[in-house]
Structure to design on (229 residues):
């Protein structure tokens, strides 16, 4: 089973700043099967990015995904107040697994 | 508008059973694989199970294999998760999630319900 590690655990930033979140896999992941989700307290997760770099429907272009192999990145170009949340990466190999999450909170 | 509404959660004793339901609307259910994903209190996300659009193929996490059964009734626009031999480790909020594209799973979950809570305790 592929294990995903996300860093940092918590990212403290101010609105308007750039956020860079990392997701590292224990073995190579096909870019076709890497996704990012956002979850706010008390809400269901929301798909942001799939296929490592494709934005899901309705996702603002300040969200972008990149990477390949074992290293993937979610970038939020300029943080809006509604972007403070927990972010999970997810992969599919023989079965889907999620990373432990990165919390983006207000500095 | 795509909507997923889970129900059937509750308090159950260890070793007991529950059946969760997910009522889908706003799309043609048979055209999409469907999934269950759970989240233990204060923890991250864990994929549980997936079923193809026709219901002919199912997938399970190792942690639930042999205890949980996913099924669907496309005529009733509903997906189910039968959970047997429940243990404390199954305590979680259970989400129903739609696959992004097609009747075979693509393993991306683009719409989620609000979840139904399951608590396993004596």
């Amino acid at each position: 089973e592929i294990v995903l590690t996300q860093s940092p655990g918590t990212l403290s930033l101010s609105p308007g700043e750039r956020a860079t979140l990392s997701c590292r896999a224990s073995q190579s992941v096909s870019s076709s099967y890497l996704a990012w989700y956002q979850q706010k307290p008390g809400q269901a997760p929301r798909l942001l990015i799939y296929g490592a770099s494709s934005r899901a429907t309705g996702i603002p272009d300040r969200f972008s995904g990149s990477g390949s192999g074992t290293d993937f990145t979610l970038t939020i170009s300029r943080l809006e107040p509604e972007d403070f949340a927990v972010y999970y990466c997810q992969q599919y190999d023989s079965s889907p697994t999620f990373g432990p999450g990165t919390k983006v909170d207000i500095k | 508008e795509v909507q997923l509404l889970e129900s059937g959660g509750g308090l159950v004793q260890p070793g007991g059973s529950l059946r969760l339901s997910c009522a889908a609307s706003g799309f043609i259910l048979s055209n999409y694989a469907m999934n269950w994903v759970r989240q233990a209190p204060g923890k991250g996300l864990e994929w549980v199970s997936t079923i193809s659009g026709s219901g002919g193929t199912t997938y399970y996490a190792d942690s639930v294999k042999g205890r949980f059964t996913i099924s669907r009734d496309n005529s009733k626009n509903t997906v189910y998760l039968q959970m047997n031999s429940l243990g404390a480790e199954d305590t979680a909020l259970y989400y129903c999630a739609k696959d992004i594209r097609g009747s075979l799973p693509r393993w991306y979950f683009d719409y989620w319900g609000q979840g139904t809570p399951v608590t396993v305790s004596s």
Q: What stands out?
A: Chain B touches chain A at residues 37, 44-47, 50, 59, 61-62, 95, 100, 107-110, 112-115 (CB under 8 Å).
